[in-house]
């Protein structure tokens, strides 16, 4: 038996007759339910798994820029002087010169 693949499916034929308002109202959520979901209990966020809250202070040692280093004016990374390229009086690293 040959099938006509160009013929509309029966569910598509039925949906063509529905009004636009009926389709919109079927897909639209109730505004009160959305507000309740957003205002819901936030206590579940306190017990997030996969990490813990640490109250320790982070200490980082900052090393000043060396005499043989420069700051690239494109990527703003500190690079060794062998990476320096000067274009128009501005210092760039070899990665950013193009």
What count of helical segments does DSSP give? 3
Radius of gyration: 32 Å
Secondary structure class reads alpha+beta
pLDDT < 50 runs, ≥5 residues:
none
Please bin the fraction of helical residues: 10-25%
SSE pattern, N- to C-terminal: HHHEEEE
Strand order of the largest sheet: 1-2
Total beta strands: 4
SS strand fraction: 5-15%
Task: Please state the oligomeric state of the protein chains shown.
Answer: single chain
Average pLDDT number: 79
Largest sheet: 2 strands, antiparallel
C-alpha geometry = elongated
Model description:
The chain is an alpha+beta fold and 98 residues long. It has helices at 10-16, 20-27, 31-38; strands at 69-71, 78-80, 84-87, 90-93. A two-stranded antiparallel sheet has the order 1-2. It has a two-stranded antiparallel sheet with strand order 3-4. The N and C termini lie far apart (66 Å).
Question: What is the fold's blueprint, element by element?
Answer:
Blueprint (H helix, E strand, L loop, with lengths): L9 H7 L3 H8 L3 H8 L30 E3 L6 E3 L3 E4 L2 E4 L5
Antiparallel strand pairs: 1-2, 3-4
List keywords for this structure.
14% strand, alpha+beta, two-stranded antiparallel sheet, 98 residues
Structure, briefly:
This protein is α+β, with helices and mostly antiparallel strands.
């Amino acid at each position: 038996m040959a099938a006509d693949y160009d013929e509309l499916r029966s569910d598509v034929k039925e949906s063509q007759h529905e009004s636009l308002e009926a389709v919109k109202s079927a897909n639209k959520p109730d505004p009160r339910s959305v507000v309740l979901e957003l205002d819901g209990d936030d206590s579940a966020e306190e017990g997030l798994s996969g990490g813990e809250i640490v109250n320790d202070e982070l200490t980082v040692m900052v090393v000043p820029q060396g005499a043989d280093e420069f700051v690239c004016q494109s990527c703003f990374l500190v690079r060794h002087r062998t990476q320096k390229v000067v274009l128009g009086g501005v210092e760039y690293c070899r990665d950013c010169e193009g």
